[in-house]
Amino acid sequence: MRQKRPGAGWLHRDRGGATVLLLAVGLVFVLVGTFGAAVAATAMAAQRAAVAADLGALAGASRAFDGEAAACASGADIAGRNGSRMVDCRLDGLDVLVTVEVAVTPLPGLTRVAVSTARAGPVRG
Predict the structure, then answer these.
(1) Boundaries of domain holding 113
(2) Is 82 a domain residue?
(3) What's the pLDDT tens digit per position in 30-43?
(4) Helix (H/G/I), strand (E/B), else coil: 61
C-alpha cells in the first residue's frame, strides 16, 4: 500500500494560480499600451494641426497683396494637403490668420478634434 506524503494535496490544489496572475498582468500591459497609444495619437494630431496652420498662414501671407479671397484659398489648399480642414481665415492688414482642425480617432468610437491658429505676415521692426 502506498503512503501519501504530507502536504502533497496542497501543491495540487494551487496549480494554475501563476497562469491566472500572468494573464492579469498581461492584460494590464495591454490596457496601458492602448491608453499610451491613444494619448500619442492625440498629441500627434495637435502637432499636425499646428504645422498645417503655420504652413497655411505662410501660404496665405504670400498672396496677401492679392486680397483675402486669394490668400485664404491658398492657405486652405496648403492646409488641406497637410491633412487638416480650414475653419477660419481672415486678413488683418497684411497679416493672415488661419484656424485649422484635425480630426483624430484615438480609440474606436472616440473622435476628437485638434484645433490650431497661426498668424503670418511681413516682418515689423
Answers:
(1) 15-120
(2) yes
(3) 999 999 999 999 99
(4) helix
Tell me, yes or no, whether 6 lies in a domain. Answer: no
Report yes or no on 3 lying in a domain: no
Q: What is the pLDDT of residues 66-109, one digit of tens each?
A: 999 999 999 999 999 999 999 999 999 889 999 999 999 988 88
Output phi, psi for 117, to 5 deg.
Answer: -125, 140
The number of folded domains in the chain is 1
The packing angle between helices 17-62 and 68-81, to 10°, is 150
The CA distance from 80 to 102, in Å, is 10
For residue 65, give the DSSP letter. Answer: G
9 located within any domain? no
Asked if the model's pLDDT at residue 51 lies above 80, the reply is: yes
Helix ranges (DSSP H) in the chain: 8-13, 17-62, 68-81
Residues 6+ apart with CB under 8 A from 57: 75, 96, 97, 98, 118, 119, 120
